[in-house]
Amino acid sequence: LRSAEKELLPGFHQFEWQPALRNVSSSWNVGIIDGLSGWMSFVDDVPAETIARRFRYDVALVSALKDLEEDIMEGLRERGLDDSTCTSGFTVVVKESCDGMGDVSEKHGSGPAVPEKAVRFSFTIMSISVRADCEGDAVTIFQEQKPNSELSCRPLCLTFVDESDHETLTAILGPVVAERKAMLDSRLILSVGGLLRSFRFFFRGTGYDEKMVREMEGLEASGSTYVCTLCDSTRAEASENMVLHSVTRSHGENLERYEIWRTNPFSESAEELRDRVKGVSAKPFMETQP
User: Fold this and answer.
1) What is the structure's pLDDT at 209?
2) Which of 20, 212, 213, 234 has the smallest number of CB atoms closer than 10 Å to its CB?
3) Is residue 150 domain-shared with residue 270, that is, in the same domain?
4) What is the largest CA-CA distance in the chain?
5) pLDDT one-digit tens code per residue, 168-178
6) For residue 197, is it left (φ>0), alpha (ψ between -120 and 50) or beta?
7) Any alpha helices (H) in the chain, and if so which ranges?
């Protein structure tokens, strides 16, 4: 009876990953967990002063897909596809967003003292397509009509932290990135429209503002001489030449530069070292894709 009762709860969906996700618990009845990564099942298990709350990424994606169940079935019908033959080959494109929420401090009341700033990491399901048979092209069966709307954007993680606090952000969003990485190599098996179907996910980090990108890629912030998030120009160079810029940065390169910053292999002075790494002064922890 207990398990039958659970099945009727909103937001409770059984699913499976093939192959199973690495470093992610296999239980699918996960509630809100402590953002600093532990697999807490219930909010009550967590001390009040914890600074982040989040859903497990795969559980949140399952919930989002189940919300779109009718749209998916409708899309299959509109495209004249037989839903009983379309059980695999679904591709889901997810847009990730992350931004500071500004000052959220408790101005009155007797709640716990919290840091002044908050950050929200969220995602939007941009499109779902299906390849009906091996030869054919993928057919789009769902496209988000308002991809930048608050209504299509689903919160994944809420954190009390200033978005320029690189270390804390790394600790909190690190596990999110690890889960995302694990999902790239696996397929989700989920019942949609009464049949088990398999989904692959692709993630695009396009919802970060520049400040956030700099934070996640370990670049110096707004006061930096190195003004560009995508190339190595200084302010002076950029002001003299608005044309000759090329996108030179990659996540891997930023990681290498951080290692140079950390180890200083050529025993250079702080100034020389800074010039060598061009404003990479922290470890990048999240690959952001334009």
Assistant:
1) 86
2) 20
3) no
4) 73
5) 888 888 889 88
6) beta
7) 2-7, 57-67, 69-78, 166-184, 210-216, 235-240, 251-263, 270-277
Q: Are residues 162 and 63 in the same domain?
A: yes
In a shared domain, residues 65 and 107 = yes
Domain shared by 235 and 124, yes or no: no
Structural domain count of the chain: 2
Please provide the DSSP assignment of 176-228 as one string.
HHHHHHHHHTSEEEEEETTEEEEEEEEEEEEEE-HHHHHHHTTB--TT-SB--
Enter the pTM of the model: 0.83
Q: Is 60 exceeded by the pLDDT of residue 39?
A: no
Check residue 206 and give its pLDDT: 83
| Domain C-terminal end among 153, 182, 207 | 207
CB neighbours of 216 closer than 8 A, spacing ≥ 6? 98, 169, 173, 208, 284, 285, 286, 288
Tell me the pLDDT of the chain averaged across its residues: 84
- Structural domain of 228: 217-277
Residue 22 has pLDDT above 70, yes or no: yes
Is 287 a member of any domain? no
| Same domain assignment for residues 153 and 43 | yes
On whether both 57 and 168 belong to a single domain, the answer is: yes
